[in-house]
C-alpha cells in the first residue's frame, strides 16, 4: 500500500515507520524543513527508544522517505494519514487549524480514489469538517476515516507493533476494507465503527485513564492522613480484574501532550452540547492540586525554601521521553524559584526542551543525578527514570547537605529507605516517613 503520513511528530513518525516495517511504501511529510533534513540524514528529531534503528532499516530498503512537499507523494497514495498536532486553545478546545490546513493541502493534490484518515486526536465532528473541506476543493473520489492513536511516548514503538486494539471509524465499506488490510498484520483486536464513535473512543479512553490516576491520588492523600499505604491499597484493588492494576500508581499526577489537553477538550466538547461533565472537571482539579504536594512536603520538612538547594530529578512528563509538554516540572520548578530556592535539575534527555520552556538564573543544570544532589538540602523526584530508581542511595546521601528525599512517584521500597538516613516522604505511604 502507498501511504503518505502528514506530520512527523511522536505519532506521525512512529506510525510511518511502523507501516513501512510491515511492508508498505510510506512518505512522511512535515512542514518544518529542519525536521525533514534531520530525518533525511538518518536522525530522529524526538527521543523514542528503538525508533531510529527501524527507521534506518526501512529507508535503506526503499520503503520510507521524508519530504516537505506532500504533492510529491499524495497523488500516488492509497491512504493519507493526518497526524498533525491539535494543541489546546485558551478555551480548552482543540485547535484544529493544522488539521484544516492539511485537509486543504491534500485536496489540492489527490488523484484518484484515496482514503484520508485522521490519526490526530480530534473532537467529534472533525472528520466531517475534513470531508467538507476536501470536497469543496476537489472532484476526485475520496473517503475520510477516523483512526485514533493510542501509543504512549517512551514505549511508542512497542505500542505501535503490539496495540491492545485499533479503532477504525468509517462510513464506507471500501475505506473499511483498505484500513483492515493495513492493520490486520498488527492485531486481531480491530474495532470497526462509525466515525463519530471512533472520535469519541479516543477522548473517553484518555479521560478514563486520567480519572484512574486522579482517583488513586486522592486515595493516596487519604492514606497519608489515616496511616494506610496506597501501594498496598492499589495492589489489592488491581487484582480485581474489573479494576485492573494499571494506572493505579499514586504520585504527583499526569502531564504530557495528551491527558491534560484531551480532558480539557472533552469537558469543552460536553459543554458545547450543554452537558456539564462534573466528574472530569474534578479529575482535572485533583491533578492540578496534586502537583503542589511536592512543595507542601518540602515546606513541611525545611520550613522555608529561601536559598535552599533543591535537587530536581526528572523534567520529562514521564520516563523514556524528552517531552516536557504539561510536565509537572514546568510548574514545580518555577514554584521553587518563586519561593527563593536554588534548583539543581537533571533529566537524562529532557533538559534542553525544559530550558526552552522555562529558564531562570537561579537554576543549575547538572550533568547527572549525583551532581544534582551535591550539597542539596533536599531532592524532589518528579520523573521515575530507571537511573533514579536504581541509583545507590547511600552514595547520594553522602554528597548531600541534608538528606531529605521527596519521592513524587513512590519508586523506593521501605527496605531501601530503611538502609539509609534519608528523611523520606512519598505519596500516600505514611509508614515510610
Ligand atoms: P507533534 O506536535 O509532536 O507533531 C505534529 C507535527 O505535525 C509537527 O512536526 C508539525 O510540524 C507537523 N505539521 C503540522 N501541520 C502540518 C502540515 N500542514 N503539513 C505537514 N506537517 C505538519 O504532535 P504529536 O505528539 O505527534 O501528536 C499528533 C496528534 O496525535 C495530536 O492530535 C495528539 O493529541 C495525538 N496523539 C498524541 C500522542 C502522543 O503520545 N504524543 C498519542 C496519541 C495521540
TrEMBL record:
Q: Enzyme class, one word? A: oxidoreductase
Q: Which SUPFAM superfamilies match?
A: 6-phosphogluconate dehydrogenase C-terminal domain-like, NAD(P)-binding Rossmann-fold domains, UDP-glucose/GDP-mannose dehydrogenase C-terminal domain
Query: Per the record, what are the reactions this protein catalyses?
Result: UDP-alpha-D-glucose + 2 NAD(+) + H2O = UDP-alpha-D-glucuronate + 2 NADH + 3 H(+)
Q: Which UniProt keywords apply?
A: NAD, Oxidoreductase
Q: Where is the UDP-glucose/GDP-mannose dehydrogenase C-terminal domain?
A: 311-414
Q: Which residues form a coiled coil?
A: none
Catalytic activity, EC: 1.1.1.22
The molecular function terms of the Gene Ontology recorded here are: oxidoreductase activity
Q: In which pathway does it act?
A: Nucleotide-sugar biosynthesis; UDP-alpha-D-glucuronate biosynthesis; UDP-alpha-D-glucuronate from UDP-alpha-D-glucose: step 1/1
Q: Which family does it belong to?
A: Belongs to the UDP-glucose/GDP-mannose dehydrogenase family.
Q: Which NCBIfam families match?
A: NDP-sugDHase
Name of the protein this chain belongs to:
UDP-glucose 6-dehydrogenase
* Organism annotation: Paenibacillus wenxiniae
Amino acid at each position: 500500500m502507498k501511504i503518505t503520513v502528514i506530520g512527523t511528530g511522536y505519532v506521525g513518525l512512529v506510525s510511518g515507520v511502523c507501516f513501512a516495517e510491515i511492508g508498505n511504501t510510506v512518505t512522511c511529510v512535515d512542514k518544518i524543513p529542519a525536521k525533514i533534513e534531520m530525518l533525511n540524514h538518518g536522525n530522529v528529531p524526538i527521543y523514542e527508544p528503538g525508533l531510529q534503528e527501524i527507521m534506518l532499516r526501512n529507508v535503506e530498503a526503499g520503503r520510507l522517505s521524508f519530504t516537505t512537499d506532500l504533492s510529491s507523494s499524495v497523488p500516488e497514495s492509497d491512504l493519507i494519514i493526518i497526524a498533525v498536532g491539535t494543541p489546546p486553545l485558551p478555551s480548552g478546545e482543540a485547535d484544529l487549524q493544522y488539521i484544516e490546513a492539511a485537509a486543504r493541502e491534500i485536496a489540492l493534490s489527490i488523484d484518484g480514489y484515496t482514503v484520508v484518515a485522521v490519526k490526530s486526536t480530534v473532537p467529534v465532528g472533525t472528520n466531517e469538517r475534513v470531508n467538507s473541506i476536501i470536497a469543496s476543493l476537489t472532484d476526485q473520489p475520496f473517503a475520510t476515516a477516523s483512526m485514533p492513536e493510542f501509543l504512549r511516548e517512551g514505549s511508542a514503538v512497542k505500542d505501535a507493533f503490539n496495540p491492545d486494539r485499533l479503532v477504525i471509524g468509517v462510513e464506507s465499506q471500501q475505506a473499511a476494507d483498505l484500513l483492515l488490510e493495513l492493520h490486520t498484520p498488527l492485531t486481531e483486536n480491530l474495532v470497526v465503527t462509525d466515525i463519530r464513535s471512533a472520535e469519541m473512543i479516543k477522548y473517553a479512553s484518555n479521560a478514563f485513564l486520567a480519572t484512574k490516576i486522579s482517583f488513586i491520588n486522592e486515595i493516596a492523600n487519604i492514606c497519608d492522613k489515616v496511616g494506610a499505604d496506597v501501594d498496598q491499597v492499589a495492589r489489592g484493588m488491581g487484582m480485581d480484574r474489573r479494576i485492573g492494576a494499571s494506572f493505579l500508581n499514586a504520585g504527583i499526577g499526569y502531564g504530557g501532550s495528551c491527558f491534560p489537553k484531551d480532558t480539557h477538550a472533552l469537558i469543552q466538547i460536553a459543554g458545547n452540547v450543554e452537558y456539564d461533565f462534573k466528574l472530569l472537571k474534578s479529575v482535572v482539579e485533583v491533578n492540578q492540586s496534586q502537583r503542589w504536594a511536592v512543595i507542601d512536603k518540602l515546606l513541611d520538612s525545611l520550613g522555608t525554601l529561601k536559598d535552599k538547594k533543591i535537587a530536581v530529578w526528572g523534567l520529562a512528563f514521564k520516563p523514556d521521553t524528552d517531552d516536557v509538554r504539561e510536565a509537572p516540572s514546568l510548574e514545580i520548578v518555577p514554584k521553587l524559584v518563586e519561593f527563593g530556592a536554588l534548583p539543581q535539575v537533571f533529566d537524562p534527555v529532557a533538559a534542553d526542551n525544559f530550558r526552552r520552556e522555562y529558564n531562570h538564573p537561579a537554576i543549575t543544570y547538572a550533568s547527572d543525578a549525583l551532581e544534582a544532589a551535591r550539597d542539596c538540602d533536599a531532592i524532589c523526584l518528579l520523573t521515575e527514570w530507571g537511573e533514579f530508581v536504581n541509583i545507590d542511595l547511600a552514595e547520594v546521601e553522602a554528597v548531600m547537605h541534608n538528606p531529605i528525599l521527596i519521592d513524587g512517584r513512590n519508586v523506593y521500597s521501605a527496605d531501601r529507605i530503611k538502609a539509609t538516613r534519608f528523611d523520606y516522604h512519598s505519596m500516600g505511604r505514611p509508614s515510610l516517613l
